[in-house]
Design brief:
single chain, 95 residues, alpha+beta, four-stranded antiparallel β-sheet, 2 helices, 7 strands, globular
């Protein structure tokens, strides 16, 4: 199951549950936040019977801390970005 199966993912999404920093340095890109920014990637859980938004936030915090975004980030050394399509393709494994 992919993230896009349980959530709506897009930019400029003020109604999202949380957002991922889409553009920044290698250390900040992909970091989840509860503060809206039109440039960030918003994630809104649509299938709350399968996953809770608070849990998913901490999953993304763990993904960021593990460095998953560094090989996916594109751009120059000082300013990189991640794509919405990369976020949509994240595979969720049930426990």
């Amino acid at each position: 199951m992919k993230l896009s199966d349980v959530a709506t993912i897009k930019t400029n999404f003020p109604d999202a549950d949380f957002w991922l920093i889409r553009r920044g340095s290698l250390k900040t890109v992909g970091l989840p936040s509860y503060e809206f920014n039109p440039e960030s990637i918003g994630i809104k859980v649509t299938r709350t019977d399968l996953v809770l938004s608070r849990y998913l936030y901490y999953c993304f915090l763990n993904l960021h801390n593990s460095g998953i975004w560094e090989p996916l980030a594109t751009g120059t050394l000082s300013l990189v970005n991640i794509k919405v399509s990369d976020v949509k393709e994240i595979v969720l494994k049930p426990r």
